Amino acid sequence: MADLRTAPVETPDESAEKPKRRRPLRRSLWLLIGLVAGFVVYAYGFDVVDVSLDRIGEPIPQQRFTRVIRALGSPDLLTYETVATDIDVEFAMPCRAEGFTPTATDGGATISVSPSCADPRAVVTVTGEGFASNEEINVFFVPPNGVELRVAQPRTSSDGTFTVEAHLPNRPDDEAQTIRAKSRERVGSIFNPVYVPTGEIDAETGEEVAVRSPRWSQNASATWTGIIETIFLALLATTVGTLVAVPLSFLAAKNLMSDVRIPALNVGFAIASFPVGGALGYASALAAGSVIEMLPDSALLVGLVTIVLVWLGIRSLRLAVPLPGTQRSRVAKVAAGLGATAAFLFAAQAMVRFMEVGGNQAAARLGSMAFLGTFVERLGEILALTFGVLAGIAGAVTLAVLASKLSYAVAKRVGTRTNLVLSMVACAAAGAVVALGIGQAGAWLYQAVDPTTTVVIPAVVGAVVGLAIGGWGAIRGQLGSGLGIYYVFRTLFNTLRSIEALILALIFVIWVGLGAFAGTLALALHTIAANAKLYSEQVESISSGPLEAVRATGATRLQTVVYAVVPQIVPPFIAFTMYRWDINVRMSTIIGFVGGGGIGLVLQQNINLLNYRGAAAQILAIAIVVAAMDYISSRLRERFV
Amino acid sequence: MGSLHDQPMLQVENLTKVYDDGTVALRDVSFEVPEGQFLAVIGLSGSGKSTLLRCINRLIDPTEGRILWKGEEITAANHEDLRNVRRRIGMVFQNFNLVHRSKVITNVLAGRLGYTSPALSVVNRFSRLDRQNALAALERVGLAEKANNRSEELSGGQQQRVGIARALMQNPEMILADEPVASLDPVLAHSIMQYLEAINRDDGVTVLCSLHFLDLVHRYGQWVIALNEGRKVFEGLPSAIDDDMFKEIYGQEAERVG
Hints:
The complex is a heterodimer.
Chain A: H1 14-17, H2 24-49, H3 54-57, H4 59-73, E1 78-79, E2 82-91, E3 110-114, E4 123-129, E5 137-142, E6 149-152, E7 162-167, E8 177-186, E9 194-201, E10 208-213, E11 215-216, H5 218-251, H6 254-257, H7 264-293, H8 299-320, H9 330-365, H10 370-413, H11 416-446, H12 451-476, H13 481-497, H14 501-512, H15 516-540, H16 544-552, H17 557-591, H18 599-608, H19 612-640
Antiparallel strand pairs in A: 1-11, 2-8, 3-4, 4-7, 5-6, 5-8, 9-10
Chain B: E1 10-18, E2 24-33, E3 38-42, H1 49-56, E4 64-69, E5 72-73, H2 79-86, E6 89-92, H3 104-109, H4 118-122, H5 128-140, H6 156-169, E7 174-178, H7 186-202, E8 206-211, H8 214-220, E9 223-228, E10 231-236, H9 243-250
Parallel strand pairs in B: 3-8, 3-9, 6-7, 7-8
Antiparallel strand pairs in B: 1-2, 1-4, 4-5, 9-10
Helix pairs in contact in B: 5-6, 6-7
């Protein structure tokens, strides 16, 4: 076989061979300057962050630290019933002339005080033995009136003894007084729980109420509620964020958008028809809604209507979009298409209504599972709220596509000069529409009411800019509108992404009030921006070969995305979504700090109350959930990628 | 090289392509392809072969010049017309360009997208006839039993056969083959070229095929055009390429090896 490729002839690259050598003196000078600069930078850094290692070793901070760490080591999860035992020993204050023999009253444990009499405000040593190991003991000084004044709070060692110095109060008296050690002994253990009668009588059964010891503490149940809220907050935010981010990410992918070039005429027509389509879609959605609203509140009836409408829609869609090979007249296709649109519009409204009515009625019957019905009802309500907007967007896009198709037909019939004029007019209208939108937004933001600044000036400026762009595009042939869209979305995502979810949560808390809903909205918005960018980078990194091949078959842009792009991005998209859920779980643990609901709220309260044992429970729960999420998400990623 | 019709299938007139970075890929290239011809396009890497083939179905927009396909000016087509042109021109690539994670049958069916309504194909719906034809196309390239495998599980030669089946699904009148065997070993190269030859001979499909190896050109090409730095330096019968011509096409340092 004859290989035609040239035999490799080496031509030495001269520029690469050129030796780049600095003189050694200059090099060491640069090194010295670098070292000095580094020294200055780190010195300044130490000063700014106020590094003071000596503080760590001081006794008071160390005690505080120890207290907190010990509290964190024993999280408040269980409540024990306790049995108190008092062990008294007689004591004299001040010491008397005649002899005094202290007598210990008993249980199994004994205490002794040395010395057995003392002056007011003296320090005595109290020792005890026979207690349970590692138990907190309260030592009181009890004057004759019986008031218990705590003087020490030792903890027994492992052999059940303690020794503690007690600072006595200023309570001299002639009668014998008492030093009392109170031990509170826990009843029951995790593996051997007991039921302790409370003394209360249940009104219904007439039996005495007993409580389990140990049982979950109040803090434990608050932690449980918080962590469940946190997990679902993260789940909802990730789901909603992903659903929005995936389609938007294609618009922010340069490789898909950069070759979208459209004739100026089409751009002008499409943008100018945008508000018309939006208004049409919105109005017809409302109209359909008000018709469906006339149906009685019967889930059965509304459900039937929905099914019939969907069936009608599918039938007419089949007529409008025949399988290849079937011939049908254009008029019939358009009519069927309009019919299908109307049917689906009504069907969608009927379905929303069905969800509201059916969900409500189901909730009334489901008893403890009522939340399922309520969920459907709520979903219906959300859809009902957003339906007008969604229909508006759909209408705007549809009309824009149709306008673009129309302009292809127009361009074929008219000459270059007419095309130029038409393009300029259409783009002027489009520019005016866009500028009016911006003007109205500005009017809302700054509460401007002067029509000159909010209507006239934007319209004129927009029209002039549009005119110029239209003329330029018509002469050049096409407008790189894809790149325009790409930059708009990229900028949007980058701006939104730079705002931390915590700050977004602050805004949403002001808007919808304290609670997990505000947190969900904040995380969802952040997820949209962050993931849309990550996704679009994934789309940009796909191999372009299949894209080219599918495009070469005559596939439309949508088909190319579905057949050449989507199969390539499924694994990384799943990986990123899992990763985002992981991040969102972590984020939602602290989003409660600003009122966004979830476990963070409980944690913050405990920290503010200096209840570190309580906070420990929440920290433990967060650690377990984050670790579990990390494990699960990495396993799932392994499986899918 | 007689043509049956008065009008050639493809006319390329004064085609020039300058990329955005200033690289001139094609300089004033003109030639005609009669219907049913097997045309070989040769030249060094970077001589403009790929750019030329991609200009024909407008995967790349040429800077200047006209391309007429069956009398229709491709260079002036808007993107709706372009869909109609592209779906009748199959394309086979050096790197096969299959969607690796998709099934073989899905890759073949993708050849039908130009004929399918976007709304239906989005939900992965092809007519029963299309599915039958896809299986028949796979049968023809001897891969029917691999229809439900993932494309990445196939060897290079098998992947290129799927690429050919995909082109066949378009019911093409012309096939553009961009170095279809450059990534394959010599034995497989002949097997792939024989499929293209059979499509050209039995179905009367015009084939434009860029090639590296001169013996393949001699064996399969009916007519040759040669490019060097974007300029057409030779057009004629494969047998007309002698040693002088060879040096002109491939440069003075080139040697025939093998």
